[in-house]
Amino acid sequence: MTGESGAAASILPMDWKTGSFLGRIATPEGPTPVLVIGGELIDMARVAPTVSALVEAGDFSGAGGTVLGRFDPDAVDLLSPVDLQCVKACGVTFAVSAIERVIEERARGDWTAASAIRERLESRVGGSIRAVVPGTPDAAELKAALIEDGLWSQYLEVAIGPDAEVFTKSPVLSTVGAGAEIGIRSDSTWNNPEPEVALLVNSHGTAVGATLGNDVNLRDFEGRSALLLGKAKDNNASCALGPLVRLFDDGFSIDDVRGAEVRLRIEGADGYVLDGISNMAEISRDPLDLVHQTLSEHHYPDGFLLLLGTLFAPVQDRDEPGRGFTHKVGDIVSIESDRLGRLVNRVVYSADAPAWSLGIGALFANLAARGLIGGAK
């Protein structure tokens, strides 16, 4: 992400001036859908009052919008780039994450037991899980062998079985954007970021673009019981997206998502630094297969945003040997990919993050008051 000066270069890809991007900004009037095309910021509120409406219309040319000038992220307040879309997520889509979920389960959320369990599981099943294609006869054979060895887990079922894990990450309108604070529960003692690529999908099931996401996770909660997934995943400010959705066009396609490299950097106020790199080429299920499984027999009239899962499960010790990683308040989390840009957020307790207050009712009241939908003029 070099070759471009200024604020835009700090969060957008180096080729951002030739790409097309979709997002939302905060204005004095209220949240506003925008396009960034050829480096220009275009207000699309009078064309489509919401991002979901703009996506459903399918016209990303900027026609009818108001050009606000050159895009400068320092001059605008970037919000999460989605609004009325459901926010879905897939878990255990990488071999490493599968092993870490089994560790959480067997440790019952106790970080002190994780190191020994990790060593044993990695030596017994790590290579096998990496090599098998989910849902194939080879995967079924591996499952039988793992059951016989007493190593089977509900997490391995979704890792190598025919059905992916798909869950709802956040309520509509609850996600936060680039530069916002991200939240962990104050009663969690074992947690981590989950840097991911996410697809924006319209109501017809067509992926129209991609962005970066942080599916913040509480390892102690989910490890105690998979039935605590909701508490582990859905908390105030626990999902960050952005900076913008890069739209698929002649210069950026789903193949760029399939081959994306995702880089993670965590910088703590205590001087702790963690760096990591993952490659989407290592994902066990194709991104479009995950879209298909998310659609299933559902209908998403406003479309959905799908987090594709993460290869990262930070295990680098932070405070004491064997404890591994957990967040501290003040951590700066940076997630970066060459074609998607950089998403940066600061960690706070969820209770201390700005309260999610703009719900569906408040949004539509705001749009009506602005004359963007039927109602007050």
Automatic annotation (TrEMBL):
Pfam annotation, one family: FAA_hydrolase
Keyword hit for Nucleus: no
Gene3D superfamilies xref list: Fumarylacetoacetase-like, C-terminal domain (3.90.850.10)
Membrane-spanning intervals of the chain: none
InterPro entries: FAH, Fumarylacetoacetase-like_C, Fumarylacetoacetase_C_sf
GO molecular function (one): hydrolase activity
Protein name per UniProt: Fumarylacetoacetate hydrolase
Source species of the chain: Sphingomonas sanxanigenens DSM 19645 = NX02
Taxonomic lineage from the root: Bacteria, Pseudomonadati, Pseudomonadota, Alphaproteobacteria, Sphingomonadales
